[in-house]
Amino acid sequence: MRARPLRPPYRVVIVEDHKFIAENLAQRLALETHVEVVGIANFGSAALHLVTHHEVDIVLLDMQFEQEDGIGIAKQLLEAQPQLRIIGLSVHDADYHPVALLEPGGMGYLTKRSTAREVLEAIRRVASGEIAISPSIALHLATHAPYHTPNEQLQSLTHKEVEVLADIAHGLSIKQIARRSGLTEKTIQSHRNNMRKKLKATTDVQLCLLAIKVGLIDIHQTAM
At residue 36, what are phi and psi to the nearest 5 degrees? Predict the structure, then answer.
């Protein structure tokens, strides 16, 4: 199910084991009226404490800790607070982390070369219920996402299901898709459920990854 839009200010926690990087990012975000930096955590247990003792909407999570696994931290945070919207941060464009984070429920993935404006745009997109991916990472997903013969998988879908898949990948809600297609929300839900069964997907993010993989949508539209 697509995440509901959040109302600002968006409450953000930064999880980063390099203090200077974390504080610099926090200072930049604090200049924005629609973002409230709840706190900074330098390791997983501190992040877990923050999200369980404070109201937190979005977590900016470094993927490469010196002593811990970023994916493991993400899973702990989502297990404790399933409504969290996690945006991964990485110095690498092409490794296993993007899919490993997005498939369990992460909603964004940025390179650490992203500007403050790009991070803010990612926060805005994730807060609205969309996913946010840096272009270089989206390109990696499009060429290396672990799907076997994705175009053959897509052939199992009806024309209408392909249209709905594209709309979901562009971040539209079920209500929005129903309105633009002239169908009922129940019918759109049925199309989505059928696609998940046919494509062996459990989340809308997995559907979106497949749409990127087959070139059904422009990676720069799904990216930031």
Answer: -120, 115
Residue 41: strand, helix, or coil: strand
Query: Same domain for 117 and 51?
Result: yes
* Domain boundaries, position 70: 10-143
* Distances, alpha carbon 153 to alpha carbons 135, 150, 205, 207, in Å: 25, 5, 16, 12
Secondary structure (DSSP) of 77-111: HHHH-TT-EEEEEES-SSSSHHHHHHTTT--EEEE
Q: Which two tokens stand for residue 156?
A: 């199992």
Per the structure block, which two tokens stand in for 22?
């974390």
Number of domains in the chain: 2
Query: Would you state the structure tokens that stand for residue 43, as one six-digit string?
Result: 């390791």
Calpha distance 95→70 (Å, rounded): 13
Q: Can you give the pLDDT of all 224 residues of the chain as single tens digits?
A: 456 789 999 999 999 988 999 999 999 999 999 999 999 999 999 999 999 999 999 999 998 887 888 999 999 999 999 999 999 998 876 666 787 888 778 899 999 889 999 999 999 989 988 888 887 777 666 655 554 455 566 778 888 998 898 888 777 778 889 999 999 999 999 999 999 888 888 777 778 777 777 666 554 444 45
Alpha carbon separation from 202 to 67, 105, 193, 209 (Å, rounded): 31, 10, 9, 12
Global pTM reads 0.70
